[in-house]
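Researcher: Structure for this, please.
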Amino acid sequence: MSNLTSETYPWLKYYPQGVPYEINPDAYPSLIEMLEEGFTKFADQPAYSNMGKEITFAEVDKLSRDFAAYLQGLGLQKGDRIAIQMPNLLQYPVAMFGALRAGLTVVNTNPLYTPREMLHQFKDSGARAIVILANFGSHLEKVLPETGIEHVIVTQIGDLLGFPKKLVVNAVVKYVKKMVPAYNLPTAVAFNDALAKGASGTYTRPQVSGQDMAFIQYTGGTTGVSKGAMLTHRNLIANVEANNEWSKPVLKDQPGHIMVAALPLYHVYALTVNALSALKFGGLNLLITNPRDMNAFINDLKKYQVTMFTGVNTLYNGLLNHPRFGEIDFSKLKVTSAGGMALQKVVAERWRQATGCLPAEGYGLSETSPVLSSNPLLGENRVGTIGVPWPSTQMRILREDGTWADIGESGEICAQGPQVMPGYYNRSKETAAVMHEDESGRWFKTGDIGIQDADGFFKIVDRKKDMILVSGFNVYPNEIEDVMAQCPGVLEVACVGVPDEKTTEAVKVFVVKKDPELSLETIKSYCRENLTAYKCPKHIEFRDELPKTNVGKILRRALRDEEVAKMK
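Model: Predicted structure, token format:
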């Protein structure tokens, strides 16, 4: 950015005092240096807490270094891809940081994926190794022969909880709760065995630059094919540096902050705002393995006086409506960050009344590492907007004709900044489709329709894509339709998003039968086998025919309009 003035960039006047207009995305040569700095600076501070067990930054340093040595001992080279598939456990940061320190590229994988979804991601990324929770080993067994994965490391939920709790938790999970289906992965290595072997091995620090790829974050696409957003070390450093500066007026560079990490670390929001950003100020991440278990979640929250809370609207709403919410002490809460989905005004106000901290809604995407904008943590917080662009970030509104819109005029939100990905992995055509270039540079087209007001605050008003937003997760109709079209007895199918009080939107499908005997339960069962839970249709409606264009293309918008009309 250059020529920084309030006239050119009106949002700058809303930056809290001390927040710079620009950050240095080259503050570190790579994430490895940033990790090492944090591990050293905050060595004795607790870094992560999970299931009653805390580990310090020094312990994460040692464990991740051991894991890096083990990975290098396998012959994995700089740039090789490693998938990590598990919920929020102490093993996650150890595996992730270890992979980065070995110079590998992390492929974050949703642990709830079906074998079909796993297979696509592993083949598309070219992953050579995987760290996976034993609970999902049976899924991996089904697809492993079709992938290029050579090394499998399996962990159990309690592996880093210490003796004897580790043995108790693992036994209960496997034998009492029966959460680990039988699997056969004969060449798999236990996570703790990998750490032990790495501890006696040699770690060689790789030469990694800011332009090297750190993560492949998978996101959906209008074609129904999940694409991997390439995020470089520089992309992530830029977003962490911006987040650090944005938070300083409130956090004041004081260590000891306690962050709630209820969102999964495999999601780019928690990855950057929780796991990576904590390295800048020595924050403790309270890892919540299953936030849907509200009683256990609240029990964890009661153990700490949290200062920072990152979440989505449904998470805040769920807590507010729980009968035990009043048991939590929020007297030290300084920052509540909301993203991933629209923050409802009623939820924001109830949260402020209950905790004294008004959530600051932000905006970002996997392709942007992720944050582009946020409401200021001090000063002007306009609920219902996505705030103002972060340091070193520009946002503009693009008309359909490719020209820039005026203030107050709607169009596609476009962004420019050091956190924007270079492109999708091995997908040059799809990359070109989301980039707009003119004399002002290269802009990423977000697919969201928004407006900018005279003060520079942005607001989302619609989505250009058919993407459905379910509790902060993107669901793409083409993928749902492609899967359901393979269900025996289905002739035609159309998928749309419909408003939902709990999840912002819900998946609804319209089905034309080929087999008159096709039942709702058959469809639901087929979807459960082939789609992650949040992608499964909540509503299914049988139709004799679907609305189409004169060339036979199904009109999803007509179906959406029908649903909207029903609600009026």
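Researcher: Any notable elements?
Model: The domain at 56-208 is CATH 3.40.50.980 (Rossmann fold). The CA atoms of residues 213 and 232 lie 4 Å apart.
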